[in-house]
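Need tokens for this chain, all 113 residues.
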Amino acid sequence: MTANPICAECGSTFTYHDGTLFVCPECGHEWSGEAEASTGADEPAARDANGNPLADGDTVTVIKDLKLKGGSGTVKVGTKVKNIRIVEGDHDIDCKVEGFGPMKLKSEFVKKA
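Here are the structure tokens for all 113 residues:
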């Protein structure tokens, strides 16, 4: 027998299964078990400009000229970046761009090659 999940609203452990929903008797919160199962680590952390999932080691192409902060130069459209790493944060791609060195990019400005 599997244990019922803890209530997301109040943290109660006294939840029960009622038909297709889980119910918390303490706060009255109702939720489906499917929604809880779908929010997991199986969703990709980053997606490119076209919505394709990105993974560590992928090769991407820059789709817009990117001006560098704190330096002179621009990463031109069409620049290929190999062997990316996905990281948490606003700039979710960590990589080395040839001719510029290590930098962080936003996934919305690249497409999977």
